[in-house]
Design brief:
0% strand; 221 residues; 71% helix; single chain; globular; mainly alpha
Length: 221
């Protein structure tokens, strides 16, 4: 009869150690990726992009990347539908903030997810940056859902909000699609590890460029 294998401490455990169960976020992540191999991949991408813009924790990039790997020639098509879903979701998030903020369940849930201090901080950012805070959140890993709902809460100009979202979200998703079209599946690790840095640097350069133009060529009144 074989004796149980000793543990690293020298004490017999009697049973093999079991791998810890994945956390809720990891299970959601795996569930999202699983849609990439189904015939409902595009509808799932649209729904995910829509939901992530107001409450869902997993970004649509996860499914977009999996779908691009599976069919690189259709990468731009996937980015298009991802952009449509996300911008529509941003509009829904704005409506939630504008129309439902006084509903206790909505208010308490969003404060729990975003944190009251983040909501207050976003108010200050809107006053200072206006269009740019929406664009940067749409293009970078900054939680876009926080921006969409707070834009409605604080009554940010809706056409400006929509324009910034319609520029920033497609720019982000089409960049992912372009990287796959240009470099193939081998770019996956780079996107997962360094894409956040690339988008932040890109947004900083763009905003910095416009600020420089504004300072160098002030409008004449």
């Amino acid at each position: 009869m074989t004796s149980p294998a000793p543990s690293h401490s020298g004490v017999s455990t009697g049973a093999p150690a079991q791998a810890p169960r994945p956390g809720m976020v990891r299970r959601l992540y795996d569930w999202v990726i699983a849609w990439a191999d189904t015939r409902f991949a595009v509808p799932a991408l649209i729904v995910l992009a829509f939901a992530e813009s107001s409450f869902f924790p997993i970004p649509p990039d996860v499914l977009l990347i999996a779908m691009c790997i599976g069919s690189i020639p259709q990468s731009y098509r996937f980015a298009f539908w991802c952009s449509i879903g996300s911008v529509l979701g941003g509009m829904a998030g704005y409506a939630i903030g504008a129309l439902l903020w006084d509903v206790p369940m909505v208010h308490d849930f969003f404060v729990f997810v975003a944190g009251q201090h983040n909501i207050d901080r976003v108010r200050d950012l809107y006053e200072a940056w206006d269009f740019w805070i929406v664009f940067v959140a749409a293009f970078t890993p900054i939680p876009y859902k926080v921006i969409t709902i707070t834009a409605g809460i604080f009554g940010i100009n809706f056409p400006m909000f929509l324009l910034a979202s319609a520029v920033g979200r497609p720019a982000r998703f089409y960049l992912v699609a372009w990287l796959f079209k240009r470099f193939g599946p081998g770019i996956k690790d780079f996107i997962e590890k360094r894409f956040a840095m690339v988008t932040i640097v890109g947004a900083a350069l763009l905003v910095g460029g416009f600020l420089a133009i504004k300072l160098l060529f002030p409008s004449q009144h």
